[in-house]
Amino acid sequence: MLLLGATASPLAPFAAVDGAVLDAFIRLAPPRAAAPRLLLVTIDEATLHSDATPLSARGDAAGILLERAFSAGAAGVALDLLL
């Protein structure tokens, strides 16, 4: 029982309020311009469905594009794939 009392915080009920206030603050903040050095490339569903070639067979083409990005000065690339 003593351990439970030591770990329970009297401020715990305010954590949800704190999170809600932070969420509202972020939602209401004016949008910031993206850094001009960032580039987002997306491939939408229509593009994927326009070519029946499976993604696994497009690895060479993707590799060439990544090499071009690095040759053009990209410091890093992130890929987010849902397979």
Task: Provide the β-strand percentage band.
Answer: under 5%
Number of strands: 0
The helicity comes to 40-55%
Major beta sheet summary? none
Distance between the ends: 48 Å
Overall average residue pLDDT = 83
Structural class: mainly alpha
| Uncertain stretches of 5 or more adjacent residues | none
What are the key terms here?
83 residues, mainly alpha, 49% helix
Write structural notes for this entry.
This protein has one domain (about 1-70). The protein contains four helices and no strands. It has helices at about 1-5, 10-30, 45-50, 60-70. The radius of gyration is 23 Å and the shape is elongated.
Question: What's this model, at a glance?
Answer:
With 83 residues, the chain is an all-alpha fold. The protein is 49% helix and 0% strand. The chain has 4 helices and no strands.
Outline the fold blueprint.
Elements lengths: L1 H6 L4 H17 L16 H5 L9 H13 L12
